[in-house]
Amino acid sequence: MRLDLVPRIRRSAVLDILAPALAFVAAVMVGGVAVAALGVSPGAAFVTYFVTPLSDVWSLQEIALKAAPLALIATGLAFCYRADLWNIGAEGQFVVGGLAGGWVGVATHGSGGSVWILPAMLAAGALAGAAYALIPAVLKVRLGVSEILTSLMLVYVAQLLLDYMVRGPLRDPAGYNFPQSVGFEAAARLPYLMEGETLHAGVLIALAAVGLGTFVLARTLFGFEVRLVGASPRAARFAGFSDARLTLAVFAISGGAAGLAGIVEVAGRIGQLQPEISPGYGFTAIIVAFLGRLSPPGILVAALVIALTTIGGEGAQIDLKLPLDLTRAFQGLLLGLVLGADVFARYHVRLVPGGPVSRTAP
């Protein structure tokens, strides 16, 4: 016997909504078993992970601040993945964007706080991220080099470059030899949305990016081209769309979004350049993109869910002594279950005599 996957002629809207919800419930149940095996009450863990972070103003702000860069990066990545192109190096583009924008903040330190400094930092971050993402894109278009390998390897180059810069040329001369730049002036920092709180304008930038991404993918010719190339490359070529031009465009968009997220993080939460400016946002955003089904509104929801589990995991580590790696395992499990649920939402499963699993063409 073998399993045949037959595409559904008509996809159920109810099933599309229920699939990720059921996957989340299944992930929570599996996580509860793992927590019980560690000697902790699953009920207490559920409250700590999913209820407590939603009952405190500070935690709600932290969720928004963690979700903002994830949503921004994942929205850019959705353009690549929808075109069946694989930018795995958003972490490096995030770092380069933060470094380039932060360099502007360091270079203008003591200049009197001109209003153009922050916009220049944001522009520098986005342009640097886009330029860095174009390296694997050009290598793919011109030489046929795998964009997966080159984009991933460039992550380590970016991290080493940042480390060198903050320990050398950009190090604060009055910083007691600590590897960090000078603190940014007020004109180089993102403004706070509420007095005395931690929520800053980077959240609004992320929301604007999600809205813009939704419009471009759903309402423009370029968005149609992205979807068509990803779904049927031959049909796209017959329609006159250029694979090379699209590759360069979507990599520039995804890299620009990641670079913008980098400088948003540096000019927002951190306030200076350090050897490490990312807790892995670029890699986590890949999970967010697929959890959100490569749709910007879905990505926003997925980013909030991942941010919630991250904040809850930190609380569980403190209150319940649960390892933080359990949170990462849960996030990976959630991705796997959501992708698996999508298979059942898109295909009928049939048992037929024969060998291994096969997929019947539409």
From TrEMBL:
Its main location: membrane. Keywords: Cell membrane, Membrane, Transmembrane, Transmembrane helix. It holds the Pfam family BPD_transp_2. CDD domains: TM_PBP1_transp_TpRbsC_like. The keyword Membrane applies. InterPro entries: ABC_transp_permease (IPR001851). The chain crosses the membrane at residues 21-51, 63-81, 93-110, 116-135, 147-166, 199-222, 243-263, 283-308. The keyword Cell cycle does not apply. It is found in: Cell membrane. It is a multi-pass membrane protein. This is ABC transporter permease. It comes from the Bacteria.
